[in-house]
Specification:
Protein name: Reverse transcriptase zinc-binding domain-containing protein
Bound molecules: zinc ion
Organism: Digitaria exilis
Radius of gyration: 15 Å
Strand content: under 5%
Number of helices: 6
Largest sheet: none
Order of helices and strands: HHHHHH
Shape: globular
């Protein structure tokens, strides 16, 4: 982060809700994967709104953490390397992470679901 608490993308105050939900940069990514967060007010709210409509709580958490993690990496690319990542790049990293993380699933059915969800990011 820079010397102040401004968002690196739009100069508004950077907090969790801004970074992951309301910033135009985050919105651009969510909409590039055809998810619209109009009713989401903060990060915790993502779990209630469940934009992936994934009923399995563990799988839902994996998906949401994966997207937030990769929005965070996009933000760090901007802050530390002055790089503007394109949405396709973020989506392909989400896909790769899900495939990687699926190896850590103790439940075979969770694993199969996460591998299936990784395909969702091919269209991103
Ligand atoms: Zn912003």
């Amino acid at each position: 982060m820079g010397a102040d608490d401004r968002c690196p993308f739009c100069t508004e105050k950077e907090d969790c809700s801004h970074l992951f939900i309301s910033c135009g940069r985050a919105r651009s990514f969510w909409s590039s994967i055809n998810l619209y967060l109009a009713s989401v007010t903060d990060v915790e709210n993502l779990w209630i709104v469940n934009p992936f409509s994934e009923p399995n709580q563990r799988v839902r958490t994996t998906l949401l953490i994966c997207v937030c993690w990769n929005i965070w990496k996009c933000r760090n690319a901007k802050v530390f390397r002055s790089e503007d990542e394109i949405n396709l790049h973020i989506a392909s990293r989400c896909r790769d992470d899900l495939l990687l993380w699926s190896n850590r699933c103790s439940s075979p059915s969770d694993k199969a679901k996460i591998i299936a969800w990784s395909q969702f990011f091919f269209s991103g």
